[in-house]
Amino acid sequence: MPKEESKTFPPKTFYDWIGVVFFLASLFVVLYTYRLGSLRVDKGQTPGLRDIGTYFDGGLSIIAGDDPYQNTYFRIGPTGGLILGVFAKFFPEYFAATLIMSLSVLGFVYFLATFAGFRKSDTIPWALMGVLVFISAHRENLVNIQITGILALCVSAGFRLLESKSPTRSLIGVSLIAIAVETKPHVLALFVLAMLIYQKTLSVIWMAAIFLSITHALISIHTKTFITLSWMNLILSLGRKANSGQLPERIAFESPFEALGISKSASAIVMLLLFTFAAILLLLSSTKWHTVHLGLVIPSLGIFFHYYDLALAFGLMLTILYASRRYYLLFALLGMYLIPQNFGSISNIFLVFILMLVLCFFTDQVNPLNVLRYIGIGLTSWVVYLLLVQSLNSQIEIHELTMSLSIVISIIVGLAITRKSIHSGVEQF
Fold first, then answer.
1. Each residue's pLDDT tens digit, 157-171
2. Domain span holding position 154
3. Model pTM?
């Protein structure tokens, strides 16, 4: 491992460039090979536009002057929807979808570089980033062509611009944050609010509210619909359907509770207590790390929070563990986070092994014994997870189980990481 003083934000040493090459190779594999189905259960089938197709249709409806919320699958905010409609209007659909996926991956990395505390004088651990694009929550972002990574890019760029003394740059930063939160408030609203409270910049809230009021008013005039009310009516309607079991979306822990025979009323009380406890921890948080971490994880205890929305929390957790040199815990969690849909695939097993092996050589404790230890821990956690799933007799979908356990483990591990445990090469939280 190169000496710490050689680390800079852009790659400087040959060792750094190897990490960049691995990241780009990972990006190529995930964007093209995985999307074509070779690493999926439904090998050979074309995934299609998936979620981004719904967003494109909704955005195009706004451009055409129609109410997009007549389609109940279009649930994102109107401002973000309009921007995606512009993408669909001026670019061929599949080119636009590929561009969205590429920006999502880069946004994922940029978010980690921003909120894991890296300074401009630090090298981004590109090899780790190459591994992180393969974690299952992030792969689900890509297979569904979701926009969480792009929104993370907007939030990261927004907070960086807020640090500028230029009013213009600050205004652009507020606009980016507002668009990201409005597009997916259930994922980012609490996180952004927690960060603004921590940084004592609550004035951003009313500035963002004014910006969104203007965009909503303009869209309402164009569509001849009170667009905000139409959006809220859809969300409330979906909430009522979810409570009555008419939607496929489930609250975290709902399936495990059902498998254990716990009643809905009892599980609702447990979930409420968990949410309240986590919210109190967030309010009492005195460190940037705990603010960022809990702000990302707590929303997963609610409805309409999908497995792929945890990619940011998982990636941030693994990045901090890597920076603080907690390699045993890093590989233990990596085994769970890399879990694929198809356990029996030889190519998947080989891929997980290669990813762990590569990451071993980018730690600062490289020797044959440690390599065996780290890979052994990672693969053991993978096998234990498989046995756990099989022991539940397929009563729970693998992603529902992964989401539930990962939330609990992430909260516990996240709270255990303190200011003193963060590696000196990373900004102290």
1. 999 999 888 889 999
2. 19-421
3. 0.83
